[in-house]
Amino acid sequence: MSEMSKNEKMARKDPLVQRLSADLGSRLLDVRTSEGLPQTKLAEMVGTKHPRISNLEGGLVDVRISDIVKLARALDVDPGTLLDLAAYKLEDYPLPPPDNHARL
């Protein structure tokens, strides 16, 4: 897997990105298990590998919109079932202060 870009690293520090990733993962796990679908089968259905599904369910990776659509289609649910963006407000998740420490 490729190394995370600077923008991806910065995004992972954003508390809203962290919350959305965790919530998507939790909802994905709930829907997948309620359907009795193994991670390996879901991975096959969306054209990825088992570890990617595991990482998504664990909230460990940022997800693309195209990933949400593929997952929703595979699970036969609306995309909003997996990620309800209307439930979040920016002011509830302020950005942490910038890390201005120089590298040694």
UniProtKB/TrEMBL annotation:
<dbReference type="InterPro" id="IPR010982">
    <property type="entry name" value="Lambda_DNA-bd_dom_sf"/>
</dbReference>
<feature type="domain" description="HTH cro/C1-type">
    <location>
        <begin position="28"/>
        <end position="82"/>
    </location>
</feature>
<dbReference type="Pfam" id="PF01381">
    <property type="entry name" value="HTH_3"/>
</dbReference>
<protein>
    <submittedName>
        <fullName>Helix-turn-helix transcriptional regulator</fullName>
    </submittedName>
</protein>
<dbReference type="InterPro" id="IPR001387">
    <property type="entry name" value="Cro/C1-type_HTH"/>
</dbReference>
